[in-house]
Amino acid sequence: LKDHSKVCHGTQNGLSSTGSQENQYNLIKDRYDGCEIIMGNLEITQIESNWDFSFLKTIREVTGYVLIAMNHFQELPLRQLRVIRGNSLYERRFALSVFFNYPKDGSNGLRQLGLTNLTEILEGGVQIINNKYLSYGPWIYWQDIIRDNSAPIDIRYNGERVTKTVCAPQCNGRCFGTSPRHCCHIECAAGCKGPLDVDCFVSACRHFNDSGACVPQCPQTLIYNKQTFQMETNPNAKYQYGSICVSQCPTHFVVDGSSCVSVCPLDKMEVEREGQRQCELCSGLCPKVCEGTGAEHRQTVDSSNIDSFINCTKIQGSLHFLVTGILGDDFKNIPPLDAKKLEVFHTVREITDILNIQSWPKELNDLSVFSSLTTIQGRSLYKRYSLMVMHIPTLTSLGLRSLREISDGSVYISQNANLCYHHTVNWTQLFRGRRVGVNNLNNNRQLAECVAEGHVCDPLCSDSGCWGPGPDQCLSCRNYSRDGTCVGSCNFYTGVTREFASRKGECVICHPECKPQRGKASCTGPVNECVACANLRDGPYCMSSCPTGVNDGQKGLIFKYPNREGHCEPCHHNCTQGCSGPGLHDCLQTARMITGIALGVPAGLIFCLVLFFLGVLYHRGLAIRRKRAMRRYLESGESFEPLGPGEKGTKVHARILRPSELKKIKALGLGVFGTVHKGFWTPERETVKIPVAIKTIQDSSGRQTFTEITDHMLSMGSLDHPYIVRLLGICPGASLQLVTQLSSQGSLLEHIRQHKNSLDPQRLLNWCVQIAKGMYYLEEHCMVHRNLAARNILLKNDYQVQISDYGVADLLYPDDKKYVYTDTKVTPIKWMALESILFRRYSHQSDVWSYGVTVWEMMSFGAEPYASVQPQEVPSLLEKGERLSQPHICTIDVYMVMVKCWMIDENIRPTFKELASDFTRMARDPPRYLVIKVGESWLDSFLIAAASVVAFLPQLWFQRSRLSSVQTLPERSQVRAVGREAEDALRTVSLHRARFSSERSNARLPASRHRKLSTASSPSSYKVWTADEDEEVDHYGYVLPGSPGTPERGTLPASNK
């Protein structure tokens, strides 16, 4: 493999598409035409016609994954593809994914994979499913191609099957014959024609390809010399560029050690050494590198992100100026961009990708805010262009006065009705890359009109052209330049400050020690090239004083004195403190030095003391500012977590969707009330496809259809709360389809099982607060969940959870708090209240029971409740008084909240409002209520023990006979196995239960009338959730430890210590 093999960059779009079919095809063709190696992913999706894909036949290697999905063509010509490296995997599992490549109607569809030379997949597995007409390809022996034996292979619903094994077992699947002696070299990745490392098939190396030889690493820049025991420069060094060893990195890449990288690490900066860009460690603060635009969350420069470009010197990525950024975006509540704020781009000197300007403020007639921009690298191009300026009628000149290099790509400047000067620029002088095509400079103002109105370059500009009017806009100067402005001549003979001309024609000021001359030049170069000195001369250099105590490296310290001609002469070699003449008697006396020391020592001590006190004051000021800032956060409830750019500010109602707008891709899971699919929502008259979750609800009895929109559906669509998964749309029909947001982080149950060793008490308690507030919101809207569990709690991010799977049951009327559900479907028995199991009676208080089990799951790190008990045995256990055991990380305070959620009498269970208040109080001092020993080995054994052990709560026979009645005395004796604090809390609850249950159906009593439990009598006493407490919770429901009102550990009552 030669260094000049064409390398292209892949995509990361997944199943998303852009524009029409023709536009999608053209984008793929422009990107991959003639490519041999793709640095990234090869994605061919949603092509519904038989387009010509012959331009893909040159591809030999893909470093990421290959995705072929939802197409209608018959064959993809990837016959030269030998290696899929799998550095990035589709869905984090597959290096090759082929699915749904056929239409619903018709006989078109993928029939052949065409991967006849693919012999190696280094990382990841293979997925080939739901390809109706695909034969042969899916049924080859993929285990022989996949390097990782543990990688998944998912092949379903395809055609015929043929397999064949050729290599001997000793060859590890790579050979050039059937004999054990015909094994390929260990560095070969996709077959070979001989046993040597140079016999591997082209571009098919496990690690790196060094001029046709497969090697474990490229020749390093430094090698060890065994004779001198030192590291020396390797004259044959090469750099790692993907899987290739190259002698020189591409022009748009930089060298970091022995590798070609697209961007330097954070602690390094780009510098140019001997014509090559290299990464070097910053001596202090590095030049500021800022993220560009173009990503989904940052599509254009607008008023919401303009401040992030302050003091930026380099843009990592692209800069896009679109209409929604300049004029504002009403849909996202983004105001128009103030033209004055564009001044932040004056510091930008380099853009790594492209500069795309499609909209510009009317107040500005040029692009002079980029006057410092010198380089556009074009590492990632848009249709071969790296500079695009279009559709700006107010633009009269470009004003890019410092632009001197376009590393890769071409220029597109079109549809600018008043633009001049661009005709004069010698664009060829700027280009450095190999993909330079024809520039598009059409449909701007005619050259004749510009000349007629005097819009021409300044006479001081050279024939290379200019960016605008004036001598400071020249691409290069005809004569000389001073500070970027062309001048007729330098100040050689006149002026206060005299100048000389550098080799580049720049006027440089003579050194201040050069003496101005009359009628002739004062200097011809730096300080050592002055015609005459203003003060003294030391050899060829002009100086203000002779050197004193300078170490010359050979004779030690030397001293000089000025003679009558103004030249510095050396002192006598015995003079150690300087001299005033050449003799020994001219040496300066040491007494002067003693006097200096006597005066300097006290002054130095005073100076050090002043510095010390100033330092103390400075650090004290910092500490005070920190305390004030923390107090402000705690008192005002400001969030430590930033708001996401996609957070909405107003209530949004769900849409009524048509079945044609939804497309299901694959099943995610089967729930109690329906099936959930991953799919796409394509709004009418739009080409964008939005990934969503589609839940299909169907009445198995066949008695109910969903052809009409009901008030219950509309009520579900109107729910909008930070801790509730928002319903995006409703699709009625024979089966009801509910469209919600697609969660990428999965359920809370999976998260706590996977990250059990890194969870902290603060996060667990805040999740409890958020779930309680979300359930309280459902209660306010008369919505009974009845399937609350950790598996139905989704993570929006690491700090916020959302409740899903709500509202499937019938909507309760506001005046009726209970209803009977008679469906015979399988229900989650272990999470249900006893009255729900025996009498099918569901209410908000039965949801409280499920909430207690959900909290137990969290505190047990995802353990299954009653793991050793059969579901049909659970009711009898509950009637006997048995409950889930106290988790090891919980104190009795937290466990008592769970126990109260599991009371037999539903009327004395706490409400969600009270639960939110309780956990908010606990979240302010997490270590007081949860004790987690991170890294200890007891966590795994705890998960097994916690699921099998239950606590016994004895219960009298007449309690089990009437579960719906209120029993006072037996409830008070249910928790004797839990501990003394649990008995006190239950006793207090029982004393106030009668009054509470009689008044609950009418209205909630004030805080002073509810659960009058003091801290001394019960650590888990309920506290009403008031508006003041709610103000101490941030946007994610995250409670800050040590908030106002939280008792410190040292001030706890004696009964709790």
From TrEMBL:
Catalytic activity of the protein: L-tyrosyl-[protein] + ATP = O-phospho-L-tyrosyl-[protein] + ADP + H(+)
GO BP annotations listed: cell surface receptor protein tyrosine kinase signaling pathway; negative regulation of apoptotic process; neurogenesis; positive regulation of cell population proliferation; regulation of signal transduction
SMART domains on file: FU
Biased composition (Polar residues): 10-20, 1014-1023
Secretion signal span: none
Record localization: Membrane
MF-aspect GO terms: ATP binding; neuregulin binding; neuregulin receptor activity; transmembrane receptor protein tyrosine kinase activity
Disordered: region residues: 1-20, 1000-1024, 1036-1057
Residues annotated as domain Protein kinase: 662-920
Residues reported in the UniProt entry to bind ATP: L668, G669, L670, G671, V672, F673, G674, T675, V676, K695
Gene Ontology cellular-component terms listed: basal plasma membrane; receptor complex
Alphabetized InterPro entries for the sequence: Egfr_JX_dom, Furin-like_Cys-rich_dom, Furin_repeat, GF_recep_IV, Growth_fac_rcpt_cys_sf, Kinase-like_dom_sf, Prot_kinase_dom, Protein_kinase_ATP_BS
Residues passing through the membrane, by range: 597-618
EC number: 2.7.10.1
UniProt xrefs under Pfam families: Furin-like (PF00757), GF_recep_IV (PF14843), PK_Tyr_Ser-Thr (PF07714), Recep_L_domain (PF01030)
Keywords: ATP-binding, Disulfide bond, Glycoprotein, Kinase, Membrane, Nucleotide-binding, Phosphoprotein, Receptor, Signal, Transferase, Transmembrane, Transmembrane helix, Tyrosine-protein kinase
Predominant location: membrane
Membrane topology: Single-pass type I membrane protein
Protein family: Belongs to the protein kinase superfamily. Tyr protein kinase family. EGF receptor subfamily.
Protein name (Swiss-Prot/TrEMBL): Receptor protein-tyrosine kinase
Protein source organism: Amphiprion ocellaris
